[in-house]
Structure formats: structure tokens, C-alpha cells
User: What shape does this take?
Amino acid sequence: MLELAILGFLYDAPLHGYVLRRHIAALTGHVRPVAESTLYPAIKRLEKAGLLVRATEPGAVAAPRHVLSLTEEGRTELKRRLAEPAQREITDENHWFALLAFLRHLADPSAQAAVLRRRLAFLEEPASFFYEGDRPLRAEELDDPFRRGVLTIARATSRAELAWLRDTLASLDGVDR
Amino acid sequence: MLELAILGFLYDAPLHGYVLRRHIAALTGHVRPVAESTLYPAIKRLEKAGLLVRATEPGAVAAPRHVLSLTEEGRTELKRRLAEPAQREITDENHWFALLAFLRHLADPSAQAAVLRRRLAFLEEPASFFYEGDRPLRAEELDDPFRRGVLTIARATSRAELAWLRDTLASLDGVDR
DNA sequence: ACGTTATACCTCGACACCGATGTATGTTGG
DNA sequence: CCAACATACATCGGTGTCGAGGTATAACGT
Assistant: This one.
């Protein structure tokens, strides 16, 4: 997820680590803050893998900056990760939102639609958080107000997302023809 | 999050690891599966910390079972974790849902309400995923349909959750008087 | 007789992540 | 004049998580 965000932001323009960090904080920081000690090793990993290169520049304000830019492999890898996300990226809302934030970089509308359809399939299979044996329980069947809240909120999210997915898929399919 | 779920399920009744695993899979597995190699060490950690004890029973079907039950410290610790969640548990929906699933174990309505109010405060502060400088962008201002989706879905979730929070807080406060 | 599946638990190595801490520079406020 | 803060990057130890693999028993189908 972090690596995806790094690749995603650098796809638009070269950035140095400090600015990158602020971008990532804006994207996911209110939900799941990213520590510096996570970001810098992640940058090194991607650099070592040949997905990005760094150019040292004298710091505009303070210490020298390492301006990061994607290599051709980095651009390819981002598109690969967007086009073929692991199941976790589809099911976990945090990961999914990060993926959506950069899905436009996957230029092909039918490839974008294929990814959305995977999420659609996930949302359409009947699942709950609470079960009676194998039967998923509905909000109305729960006494616990907190568990009822979980289902109420999840249902509202699911409805909004299904509507958006169907809308967006329709307009993406329209582009093809 | 995993430890909370273990403590939460065991609070109701002693369980052995295999059943516990199925409970956890039902609760969060469709979003974020938990590997066995994560669960068993977690159980050991909690055992070592004196929060649970195990009793070996001949297996009903196959190999012998380790039936786990909470100690008094375990019960206290669960309540502590429910009453004083880290900020991450409040902001990350996955963690928050797991907490809500067991919040009923925190018997005191005003303690429950205090936790809900922390979530309320988080949801009420203006935050977005996308910014222009410091200004949070609204869905309508985005060209990117995928980023617009993120905001649309987040807004629907937020609305549903705010409504539920206010309802539930009202009825919890009613209990007090 | 044998392979498969389900039950039931466990270890190990690899690795991502975090908090604490460190280094260095330039700007701002008292 | 100096502390505080923002910029800018980095390391380190501890720990949680995962995938792969292992052990053992019992039921079921063929």
C-alpha cells in the first residue's frame, strides 16, 4: 500500500522524500499515519529494485534533497500493481482506496473496468461480520447496538459503492464502443 | 486488533484455537484474513502475559484441543483496551469495527459513550483524501472518476456513521439519567 | 487399501512496520 | 542571542505478520 502510493505519486512528477511524505500523509494519514522510519526504507527498497532513481539536489530550504523519479521499470511496475492487485487490495478498504487514488494511471479503460469488476464481485457476495452458524445476520437481528452499528454503516458504504461502481463501469464501457 | 478479537471472543466463553480462528475469520476474514501462523503466536503472547490460560482436552473429532479461557487479568485488560483505545483503533475503520464488535463488554454506558465520542470527534474534523494546498477537495471538484469515487463512498460512510453515532449516544445518555 | 478432506496445533525464516533517536541546516520568535 | 521549529534524511532494535512447511488424528469416498 505504501509502495503503491510512492509509485503513484512519483508517476505524476519527481518528488523528494519529504514532500512525498506530506502527500502520503494527506492521502491516508488521517486514517493510518505513516512513520518516517517506514517511508525511507520503503524508498530504498524501491530504489534497490530499480523502480526509482534518486538525484541529490542542494536543499532549497535546508539539508540536501534526494529527488526521486520513476524509472521505466517503475512505471511498468505501478501499472502492473494497479492492473493485478492482490486480493487484499480488493477487500481491504484502506488498500482499495489507495489503489483507486491512482487507478487513472492505468490508461486503458477496459483494464480499469476489470479492476472495478473485481471489487464489484467482492461486494456482491453475501458477507456479514456476524453469523448464526453459517447464516449471515442482518442488522435488525442483533440486540447489541454496537454490532448493529457495524452492519448499518457497512451496508450504507456498500450501497454507495455499488451505485458508484455501476455508474463508473457503465461510463467506462461506453468509452470502449 | 487480533489480540482484541481473541480477548473479545473469549470473554463470552472459553474456546479452543481452531474455533477461535473460525470466529475471527467470520468477523474480519472477508476483509483481512488472519493466518494461522499469526493466530497461534498471538495466543501464546496473551498466555505468557497471563491474560488467558489453556486446558488440554482430548479432541472431540481429532487431535487434542487447547481450550482457552480468560483470566481475571484478561478480563480487566480487555476492558482497558476497549475503554482506552489507541488513536489508530479510532481512525482505522478495520480496527474500529473490531472494537465496536466487543464494545458491549464494557458494561458502563458512559464509558461506551466516551469511546463513541472519540470516533465522533474524529469524523467531525474536516478531512479529505485529496487537497489543493491545505484546502480539502470535494468530490465535485475532482475530474478523476476514481478519486471522486473515494470521496463519494467516504462521504456516504461518514453520513451513515454520524447518524448512527448520534442516535446511539442519545440512547446511551438516556440510560444514565 | 488409499487418497483426500477436516480437525487441531505448531515452527521457522523473511520482512514490513514502528518508536526512539540521531544528524544537519535554515528560519522564526522572544 | 538562543531556543524552538521546520526542513531533510537516516539507523536501529523490537515486534507483528505472513507463507511455507510440518505433525498427528479421524472420517469419508472409491
Summary: The interface with chain A takes residues 26-28, 30-33, 88, 91-94, 97, 100-101, 103-104, 112, 122, 127-131, 144-147, 149-150, 152-157, 159-161, 164-165, 168, 171 of chain B (CB under 8 Å). The longest helix of chain B spans residues 145-176.
